[in-house]
Amino acid sequence: MAGQIKTMVLLGASGDLSGRLLLPALGELLDEETDLRDLVLIGAGSEDWDAKTWQDRLRTSFGSSNVSPKTMDAVLETTQYVKADVTDAEDLTRLLDAGPSPAALYFALPPAVTIAACTQLQQVSLPAGTTFVLEKPFGTDTASAVELNRLLAELVPEDQVHRVDHFLGRATVLNLIGVRFANRLFEPIWNADHIERIDIVFDEQLTLENRARYYDRAGALMDMIQSHLLQILAILTMEPIASLDEVDYRNAKATVLRACHLWTDDPATSGRRARYTTGTIEGREVPDYTAEPGVDPNRNTETLAELTVKIDNQRWAGVPFRLRSGKALRDRRKEALITFKNVQHLPSGLSGQPVADRLRLSMGPDKMALEMNVNGPDDPFELDRASLETDLLAGRLPAYGEVLAGVLSGDPLLSVRGDTAEECWRIVDPVLQAWRANKTAMDSYAAGSTGPAIWE
Predict the structure, then answer these.
(1) Above 90 in pLDDT, residue 398?
(2) CATH of domain 7-164
(3) Which residues are catalytic?
(4) How far apart are CA 234 and CA 236, in angstroms?
(5) Which residues, in sequence order, are CB contacts of 246 under 8 Å at separation 6+?
(6) Which of 11, 112, 116, 302 would be a feasible disulfide site paired with 87, CB 3.0-4.6 Å?
(7) What pLDDT does 1 receive?
(8) pTM of the complete model beyond 0.85
């Protein structure tokens, strides 16, 4: 395992991801962990930026998250920007030599460019402890994920590869694990005997937001379900772990993902897809997806996807897991909804139909709500519903900051391991192929609605 990182080389430093998310999160992390302020930040990109342009980007990005002047000054004192072709071995060598070792190479790049850069790194003598940080998607299908993992394994050990899933920062992971394993109320009944179904939903009001270059080639299934939602599923369904050691934790996730399969034998019927049309979201007019700048209608890209899977083991036999994610929807909804089985018998004398208890675990911000049956306020013989709600630990840092903390300290706990990345592709590949062959209908929904009316 690598020690504390001394240099972070940000490949794609001029891109939107770096300016909007990575650099602000890095600034907040350095504000919180002052012993990391001697980190040397090297920005790399194809743009011909001078030192002032790079420093202005840092000031803007750090300013968006109110980074302190001390942190700003410490970073500006040692940082530099290097114009480089990240697919050229000589340029990559220059970048690695630009700061002290060990270094973290952060690939804030499209997947194809990341693969090309890793291929060239085979010709570079990597200093001991060099760490790779990759953004999803990790490949574009099972075969490419396997090939990428093979390439990475030739360069650095697996525990020095951080495949980033920023939706699962440390606070969110610990909240999900804490609720599930630290409560006698839930832990003994967390199985098919007591749980009817689990829905994991990430609905967004956001539209493309100038990301057509990536999103129109990915779509909702590849962008969210293949990565983030399957990782959440693994945390919710894995077997009890002895400790939060990265080996125990990541082994348990890998085991349950190997048991995960499509709900039906037919990939065309295990999922649904749709695309938004014109509509209004909180007073904002939204154009038809196919009219968005950069969209190619011939790609037939979905903006809303649902996938139902099962887990073939004793704990979860017969339980459906619905994974759903979409854009341009009416509500912001990021949650795991656990629906328990209904009571087997209601005493005579109580009126009303009991509704199954439901546990909502919301993410970003993290909250918990337990919906259950209680006696009514007017007639105690009549059932009513109540919701017990609480906020969960928010954490000191944003999700990206927590991920970067793991990278800089050499802790791969929050990183997606190579074998689980391959399993996620193995689950969704047949559905993607069925959709590309148009074996599943493309439904539509108005922007600002809850989705296709026929889905209700």
Answers:
(1) no
(2) 3.40.50.720
(3) 228
(4) 5
(5) 159, 411, 412, 413
(6) 116
(7) 47
(8) yes
